[in-house]
Amino acid sequence: MSTTEGTGGGTATRPSAPDDTAQPAEHTATPPDDNATAPPTGQNSTPRTDHDTTPPTGQKAASATGQDVASATDHEVASPGAGGDAAPGGGGVRLGPVWGPAGAALLAVLVATWWTSSPAVPGITLPGPLVEYGLPVTRLAMQLCALAAVGLSLLPKLLGFDDPDRTEPVLSGARAWAVLAAFGWAVTALAAMVLSAAELSPGRAPDPGAFVEALGSGQGLVISAACALAYTFFGLLAVRFGENVPAEIRIVVAVFGLLPLPVSGHASNWYWHELSMVSMELHVVAAALWTGGLVAMAVLLARHRDLLARALPRFSRLATVALVVVGLSGLFNGLVELALSPITRLPGSLFTTHYGQLVLAKIVCVAAIALLGANIRWRLMPAVARRRPAAFAAWAALELTVMGLAYGVAVALTRAPVA
Predict the structure, then answer these.
(1) DSSP 8-state code for residue 207
(2) Which portions of the chain have biased composition (kind: Polar residues) (predicted)?
(3) Cα angle at 251 between 248 and 256, to 5 degrees?
(4) What is the sign of the dihedral through the CA atoms of 165, 169, 175 and 178?
């Protein structure tokens, strides 16, 4: 066996070239046919074997009935477009599942922001449209970049390390995409910090330094951006040295960067501060692991049946736990926020306030996601595990689209007035 350097800097084994001195296999001699004649001059003198699918000179490649000369065998590999396994690293990236959730999230956050916007009050200067709509869109982009980094970091743990010849070409692409996602995360976090400072001083030039010094939400954005930059550093090392840079380091850094984000939402003002913060952080981390992992599989593994069969059962167990955590923590956060409002009362505030209606919209989204996830787990996963064709990419894209709607509603929810 010989070794060659992998795309991610690690080493992968491949069979060595055959030994020229090896003796050929022994064949049973076939007596010559007395009726055989030598081929005419100019034609190949090599006799055709039973496996030769090349038609003789002057004959058609297919018969008059339209049948192919070479019949399909058990070893035939379907093309990627037909649902077969694609060679790792050979065009296996599908960006289609990304655009649906991104578009749904953008639409949801814009509509929800418009719907919950405060009316103009004479004598009070409100932020302009650039800040009013730009801040939630920027925070949404930050969340999406963060969950992409988390999900791509999780991929090595889902695939395992026992078959680097198959997994390394896919993982090398995941590491490169994760670096781009982490850098986008850092940029959008800093942009959100500037827009948040502008929101607090409408009509004046924003002062990000004063915003960070005075408010915990600004400090949380700075910490999150710093974690994103730290992830970018470790991600670049992983691009160069492969999985010699442990995936656990990247997962921990990415998850740690998510923890300060709830500070900028309603959780920072709740009376039950400690309990609400823990609940919100569990909610954010579980949602990122769940959504990010599904994005990574839909984009990078949908064309590789063998790799998908390996990763999907492991992810399904993680997604089940994440669903329970996201559902319970989200319901707790919304109901407690409404219960602590001195102006409105439950259960009527669920239906009479914009905040309560957004909570109901999130509950509907989570219920729909649970049904779509159950379809993948109980209906599609058995076929995926047997490496049979399954519409995983289409169902995953639909589930991610609903997740995008939920993310858009969640971003608007952190800024919506409770009363």
Answers:
(1) -
(2) 60-70
(3) 125
(4) negative
